[in-house]
Amino acid sequence: MARVTISNDERVLAALAKISELAPDKQFNEVAARIVLADAQQRVPIGPGRRGHRPGTLARTGRASGTKKAGFVRYGGGKVPYAGPIHFGHFPRPQGGYTLPNPWLYDAADSRADEVKVRFLEHFAKVVAGLGLGPVRG
């Protein structure tokens, strides 16, 4: 079994603790969520506007937010409870009808994954460079 010894281990541990505090942060996660939201807004289905609904009601409920641990893109709400069934679909109901899945949000996240990864690596490299730990290769 290989054994690794790190000199100046207190400095390395302090730098690792600092990295975990700085990257990623709430603002970065919100920016990443906004990247996905911009693409999702282009893909969200627009209904015909029947039964008192204006066309584009679902699209107007799109929002992005970020926490220290993750970014979130959400659709729907109290007045638009059908975001989930439109995205994931649902089986035939007793009153008739069913909806095929239309995973526009997953498609948007997949199409923007590489852009978010690049932004993350750039952000992480800035954090590490600010600590004086050397270059980061991605």
Layout of secondary structure:
Layout: H1 9-22, H2 26-43, E1 63-66, E2 71-74, H3 83-88, H4 104-131
Antiparallel strand pairs: 1-2
Helix pairs in contact: 1-4, 2-4
How is this structure best summarized?
The protein has 138 residues and is mainly α. The chain has one domain (14-45, 54-131). Helices cover 48% and strands 6% of the residues.
What does this structure look like?
The longest helix has 28 residues, at 104-131. The chain contains four helices and two strands, in the order ααββαα. It has one domain (14-45, 54-131). The chain has a two-stranded antiparallel ribbon with strand order 1-2. It starts with 8 loop residues before the first helix and ends in a 7-residue tail after the last helix. The chain is elongated. Helix 1 runs antiparallel to helix 4 and helix 2 (26-43) runs antiparallel to helix 4. The chain has 138 residues and is mainly alpha-helical. Strand 1 and strand 2 form a beta hairpin.
Count of separate DSSP helical elements: 4
Overall geometric form: elongated
Please summarize the sheet with the most strands: 2 strands, antiparallel
User: Which structural class do the helices and strands define?
Assistant: mainly alpha
Poorly predicted runs are none
Q: How many strand segments?
A: 2
User: Average pLDDT across residues?
Assistant: 84
What percentage of amino acids are in beta strands? 5-15%
Residues in helix, %: 40-55%
Count of distinct structural domains? 1
| Cα-atom radius of gyration | 22 Å
- CA(first)-CA(last) distance: 28 Å
The run of helices and strands is HHEEHH
Query: In order across it, which strands form the biggest sheet?
Result: 1-2
